[in-house]
Amino acid sequence: MATKNLTVDNKNFDISYEIVNPTAKKDIIFLHGWGSNKDIMKNVFSPYLKDFRHIYIDLPGFGKSLNNYVLTTKEYAKIIDELLKLLSSSKDIIAGHSYGGKVATLLNPANLVLLSSAGILEEKSFDVKAKIFFAKIFNALGLKSVTKAFRSKDVNTMSENMYTTFKNVVNEDFSSYFTNFTNNALIFWGEKDTATSLKSGKKMASLLKKSTFTSYDGDHFFFAKNAKNISERIENGIL
User: What is the pTM of this model?
Assistant: First the structure.
């Protein structure tokens, strides 16, 4: 594990990353989802894709990458892009799980790999809508301690700046970014995913012009049990 210090838009970051197969000539970069970290991706994929230099990154605010700022997805992409420049990365492949898929898309790699990616807005349940409604009321009344009770499990242990960051990114519609992405895309999905639905995955595939779509029996972390097959499909499907 290593750390790079970098500055983006006058904001300073220490980004934690780990490299596997350091002498390989082509790169595959792995970006985890919200509330996760690089170790989850490394534990799953490091045994495979031996011809690639693997770069596993903790996004700011997760794992061992601290974050003291309120960020947007575009800022996340700028931060990771700066890190990749420092690592002399060729961005041959960027694989993103869930929220990491949105960041990966903005980085415009030669080959985009999406693992149950976020980015397609889905209809909220009545319970979620009710929580948002009451949270707004309590927030307007200055009762922030009460508002915390309505927060998502993904963020209930986050700092205030990361919670505000979460609010910035959670309802983004990335349809136009997927439509405008013109490079090669490989999309993998869990058929029982309740965080990002299979329907969203199929819509994403229809928006990405040069894409292939593969689904597996599994939930939002389906790739943990299917890493070998996914890795083989990546090797056979990249341009």
Answer: 0.88
